[in-house]
Every structure is written in C-alpha cells, then in structure tokens.
Amino acid sequence: MASRMLSRSASSASVPLDASSTKEAPALDAATAEKTVQIMAACHDRRLSSLADLATSTRGLVSDTLRRTAWPILLGCADGSSGDPKSHPPWGTLAPHRDEEQVAKDVNRAFVHYPRESDRQLDKRREELSSVIVEVLRRHPALCYFQGYHDIVQVLYLVLGAQDAAPAVTRLSLLRIRDYMLPTLEPALRHLELLPAIIRAEDPILYDHLPTIQPNYALGATLTLFSHVIESYGDITRLFDFFLATDTVIPVYLFAVMVMSRRDELMELDKDEDEAIFHVTLGKLPQPFDLEARIAQTLKLYEKLPPQSLRWPWWKISASSALKATSTPLSVSSTSLDVAQALFQKQEREVQLKMAYEKMVFTMRRFKLHAYRYRRPGTYGLAIAVGVYALWVGRNGNMNYGRFMTIGAFSDALRSFFNFFV
C-alpha cells in the first residue's frame, strides 16, 4: 500500500512524456505549424467544435504539448486544468477502495511497450500511475475497477503528467466509460451487440459468412479504448485524440471498420470452420495498421449508419448509458460530475433489477423442475408467491433476501423455500 500512497510530487517520472522521446512526430512543416496555431487558438478560446474538428483531422492534435491543454478541455475539466485540489481532502486519508489489490497487480504489468526508460524510472511511473487510479477510485467508491482500466489511465498519465491526470481520468470514467465501471460488464456487452448490427447493415455478405457468435472478441479493444491492443505510443495518443473528440460509441464503429477491412481474410475461412478460429481472427487488428485511413473510414461509416439506425440493439441500451445520456463531446464537456454520478447510480439500479429478475427466473426454473419431480401439494401456489416476492426484492434494488425476510409466517415459508432450492 505504501507505494500507492506516495504523493505525486515532481520527479523525473512525473514529467509528462515528451513527443520527442517516442519519435512520434517529424520536424514541423508549414501545414503542421499552421495547424498548431489553430489548435492553440481553439484551446485559448475554448472553442470545442473547432477543437474537435482539429482533433479528428489528419494527425490529430499533433503533439503531447498541445494535448496537455486540449484533452482536459475536451473532457470538460474546469478551465482546461486539473481544478483546485485544495477543495478536496487528501485522497490518502480516504477509505481504501475494494479493488486496490487488483489495481496493484495490474499496474505492476504496466509500461510494457512504452516509454523506453530505465527500470528505476518505470518503477516510479508505476507508483504514480497507481496513485492516480487509486485517487479516482477512492473519491468515487461506487466505480468498479476492471482489468484494462490501467491501460487507459496509463495513456492519460503519460500525456498529462501525474499532477493533472486524476481530474481528467475522473471525467473520462464517469462521462465516457461509466458503463464499463458498473458492478457487471453486462452493459459493456450490450455495446458489443451493436457490432454485428453495423456489419450486417454495411456488408451483409460478410455478416452471413461469419458465425453467429457473441462479439466478445471485441471486448479487449473496446473496453480499453484500444489501449490494450495498440503497442505504439504515437498511435494510441492519436487515437485518443479521435475518441475524445467524437461520440462515445465511436470505438465500436472503429472495431467494425477493422473487421470489415479484413474481409478477404475472413471470407477465405470456411463458414463451417471452428468458431474458435473465427474468434481469434476477428479479434486481431489488421496489418499493416493504417490508423489515419481507419479513422477516416470510421467517420464515414458513422455518418452513414448512425446508432439510431441500428434499431433493436440500440434500443436495448439504457437511456442512462454513456452512449446516450452523454454521447457527444459537447454533452461530455458540459455535464457536471454530480449529474454523471446520478446517471451512474440509475444504471446501477437498473443492473441490480436485471440481476434480481435473472435470479428469479433461475429460481423458478429450478422450482418447476423439483415441482414436476415431486409434485408436492401447494408447490405451484408457492412458486407464484416466490415469483411475486422476488420481483418485489428486485425493484427495491437489493439482492440481500435476508434483509427483507421479516414478514411473519410468510417469511418463514419463503426462507424455507430458498434454503431448500437456492
């Protein structure tokens, strides 16, 4: 724990990663110099629309120096900065988050591909990265850490530096990826159901050739905003320019583009091939990986097939989802953290209700099996009572049956039922 409690004081590791250290950009030419001036002006005037246009155009925001100003603006951080840390108690004094042990394990595996620094410098970076993650989780304990979250935070940390990363990570977590930080990944899997719908609408022949498997092959990429699967620092920072300047559903569209760009390879696979072969093939990024071309194709695809056109898969996504309630860069930048937390809590209740319903269905199926086997008198009447009661528990948003078992003889009967069948 001591390593994660270090203050984020200035050090060689806490300095943001320079573009020159990754050789991410050639010497400035006239066009790049002009774009740099435009980005600086858009940041100065906080012209979000202009900044988003510049971030999605070729080469994005050009350099980390410009990103350090532009990313906080795109995320809606106050004045494009980290805010006033004095307005909050020191995060080290807050109660530990339940996921800190997993954070420590994952952070120990961070910085595999970049930056190229000494072991001592990387150890310091891991301490600071852990501090950023733990601060966000302690200040917002309802958030649930997921494996791969550290890959996302790593990118923001390297660009913004240890001092300014936490506020940006907080807004990213609550406004752009909050669906991934709920108690279950079910909302994230709902996002992936958009993927086959996009492919079906754009390329029905390819769609018919692919097996009807769950699109979980895209989870590792979309869940981490591709930071887990892209090994080039220049590519991932450019991609974050794109993501932060576009709608929250865009990572799914980018993955669809990548699948369809490998159409010939996929069509060569026998349609009756083992599904595992398809799963592995679909999960790979195309090579060579022309990022600028993929970004341009994604923008065209999104304009042609907006998510509302996908009908049922889009309808199933919660109205409180980040894909709907804070879907655009404007809504992300203008929504307060209080509103974002309220949306998170609403989604959390929806998830709890769904879990209660699934528990009820599972219980009823078991009960019907036992009722058919033993045909005990009164079992069907009890089944109806249990169904009604389970639904009531679900609507109260709590799966702790013991808390509600306080209603006399009926509670005794229900408790006996759950003890026997569940």
Account of the 3D structure:
- The protein has 23 helices and no strands.
- The chain is globular.
- The longest helix has 38 residues, at 337-374.
- The protein has helices at residues 19-22, 30-45, 48-56, 64-75, 100-107, 119-139, 149-160, 162-176, 186-192, 194-202, 204-209, 219-223, 233-244, 250-261, 263-268, 275-283, 291-304, 312-315, 329-334, 337-374, 379-395, 401-404, 409-421.
- The protein has 3 domains: 2-25 and 63-176, Helicase, Ruva Protein, domain 3 (Orthogonal Bundle), CATH 1.10.8; 181-335, Ypt/Rab-GAP domain of gyp1p, domain 3 (Cyclin A, domain 1), CATH 1.10.472.80; 341-421.
- The two termini are 39 Å apart.
Total count of strands: 0
Q: What is the N-to-C order of secondary-structure elements (H for helix, E for strand)? A: HHHHHHHHHHHHHHHHHHHHHHH
What is the fold named in CATH at topology level of the largest domain?
A: Cyclin A, domain 1
Figure out the total of helices.
Answer: 23
Domain Rab-GAP TBC: 61-247
Protein name: Rab-GAP TBC domain-containing protein
Biased composition (Low complexity): 1-14
Keywords: GTPase activation, Membrane, Transmembrane, Transmembrane helix
List keywords for this structure.
mainly alpha; 422 residues; 23 helices; disordered N terminus; globular; Cyclin A, domain 1; Helicase, Ruva Protein, domain 3
